[in-house]
Request: fold
Amino acid sequence: MNIVLLGVNHKTAPIEVRERLAIEPSRLAEATRSLVQTPGVHEGMILSTCNRVELLLCQEPAAPAPMRFLHDYFALEPALLRPHVYEYREREAVRHIFRVASSLDSMVVGEPQILGQVKESYSVARSVGAVQSTLDKLLQSAFTVAKKVRSETQIGSSSVSIASVAVELAQKIFGSLQGKKVFLVGAGKMSELAARQLIQQGASSILVTNRTHERAVKLAETYHGRVIRYEELYATADQADIIITSTGAPHAIFRREHGQQFMQRRRNRPMFFIDIAVPRDVDPAMGKVEGIFLYDIDDLQSVAASHLADRAREAEQAESIVTREVDRYQQKLQTLNVVPTIVELQRSVEELRQAELRRMQSRLQSLTPEQQAAVDALTKGIMAKFLHLPLQAIKSAARNGDSGSVDVIRNVFDLAQGGESVNGTMNGNGNLQPEAEVAEGEAPESPEVQLEPEEHS
Reply:
């Protein structure tokens, strides 16, 4: 099986493209089911955020390119997508998902929201049976790496997010937020983060609205704001100096004609819209209305860049951790890929030992039970010592990515070619014990691959 990652993000595609690929949370499970129904795809997960849409797949080597799913599911022409799509395979796919989970590929490097978004996508994919052994192991490792980056560097020492950058932009526009009235349209996580920052920067009052009224009430109560019923949005929006909008609406909720109405009622006093939703909440044509200044999420990149400069050293340390953990993961994977060979060799030798004991059974009948047990232990010990060097050679070859040496050993011992790689312990009875790794040291005396548990976050 091959690990493949395909996607677009804020670095490769403008918001005009990303919003056409965005998947609402309510549709994520259905989209994930569709993904794993693609021919040749065995496991899959979709990550859809304001800055990226990515497909993580475990698929057959000869499976069609995953671009086909994007074309079919979103009904988009290949020519539109091809210039913006990146694709990673195997090691590079592992590295990318480790970097994404660790917030090294985010618009705001170090922001904490992305890890929660990856975990939510993982949870949805597991719930529909789209993530199984291979991707489960990969994603659990990604969570562990993200935790290590957070604990061993200061990359997340200050609370920076898309929402806080939006508030920073508003502050730069006005010079100060003292006495300014802000309207939060949408009561999700982004709005909550924005409300916290707005209060800290001195905004005089906050208005909150949301399609689900109870969520708006909860947010307003937390930050001493005033709730506006959603149906009163257009009648009251002109009261605000700044509107920060981040709803999950599939289409723009503010259009040019709304802006013209707001300006008439405000007597041309300027009004600022900061749209951090994907798909966008504000039609770009609204920015052409005189007196209205519109910024979308891509406009926040210049502000976010200053935070990257501040965190350059921490980001460098985090990249080193990711590189080290990718190497570690690949070594584990290579080792686990030879577990079937180890099991098959142990089983073959054990069958030979049992056959010889049966052949000598008539001569051993005169022995006492204690003596027969001693013979059994003796033959097991001889076989274990005989297997020690071949097993160590297989493990060493796996760690070094030397598949040729493994093939030589298989040929020498006349073992069947092929076999599935596994993510766990395969014991002498052919039973799989998950989350495991071939141990170092002496070969075991029983036909069982010794493994040690992996750390999880």
Notes: The chain has three domains: 2-156+311-331, 162-307, 338-434. The chain has 18 helices and twelve strands. The domain at 2-156+311-331 is CATH 3.30.460.30 (Beta Polymerase; domain 2).
